[in-house]
Design brief:
About 25% of the residues lie in helices and about 35% in strands. It starts with a strand and ends in a 5-residue tail after the last helix. The protein is built from four helices and 13 strands.
């Protein structure tokens, strides 16, 4: 059994792209290390990656919303960044983010905005930061909607990096977002000559389709026991 505790991270795409532009694949990747079972009277808040056959189970426990994602891959590693969650999954970069809707649309619930309007507001908020604070250049967004078989709506959006920032490791970014309670859960990946738009889209959709949420925090020890018994990840 392997377990990694992942530290707190910033919730905007700026941190992701800044780190990406500085360290793309040049940064040392850290393989998940072995750990003893975690025994707590109450499930703790925090973030973990639990090793599965063929990937990892990512767990995020927080007071308001807890969730898991199954990240499938032959080689899943954590990039060395103390403030952000970056994983390298068979050569593809993945960042996992979650933020309160009130961060960018404080009156969303009061005004009874639907999920699609909320996701578009989040996209515009992220894009404004990217243009004004990081890239200092206008970006053109390409946006589409997706639905899970359960009927849950999601937003997929992407942009190309300005020409002077493009390189063999990064030509653009793609995002997938969905509303869960009073939060937006956001996945993003890097596009490059080895990861096409269709590859990135499929990767994000496959990952988000494994999302499981809970109003209560997940018990890490119970999850580890379930993995060992084969009832998770088999």
């Amino acid at each position: 059994m392997k377990t990694t505790v992942i530290s707190r991270f910033k919730t905007t795409s700026i941190a992701f792209l800044a780190a990406l532009l500085l360290v793309v694949f040049a940064s040392a990747s850290i393989a998940f290390g072995d750990s003893e079972l975690i025994a707590q009277a109450q499930p703790p808040e925090g973030r973990w990656s639990l090793k599965l056959d063929g990937g990892v189970l990512f767990v995020w426990n927080r007071k308001e919303l807890s969730f898991t994602l199954t990240i499938k891959g032959k080689d899943v590693r954590s990039m060395d960044d103390p403030n952000n969650i970056f994983l390298v999954v068979d050569g593809k970069i993945l960042q996992i983010q979650s933020l309160p809707i009130t961060n960018f649309a404080p009156d969303a619930r009061k005004n009874k905005l639907d999920d699609q309007v909320i996701l578009l507001a989040h996209r515009d908020w992220e894009a404004t930061f990217l243009q004004n604070e990081l890239l200092h250049a206008k970006i053109t967004l390409k946006t589409s909607s997706e639905k899970l078989p359960s009927g849950i709506s999601m937003l997929v959006w992407q942009y190309d990096l300005p020409q002077n920032l493009k390189n063999q490791d990064a030509t653009g970014q793609m995002y997938l977002s969905r509303v869960e309670g009073d939060y937006v859960i956001l996945l993003n990946t890097v596009l490059n000559p080895s990861v096409s738009e269709s590859d990135g889209r499929r990767f994000l959709l496959e990952t988000i389709s494994t999302l499981k949420t809970s109003p209560d925090k997940f018990d890490i020890k119970k999850l580890q026991d379930a993995i060992r018994s084969g009832s998770i990840g088999s």
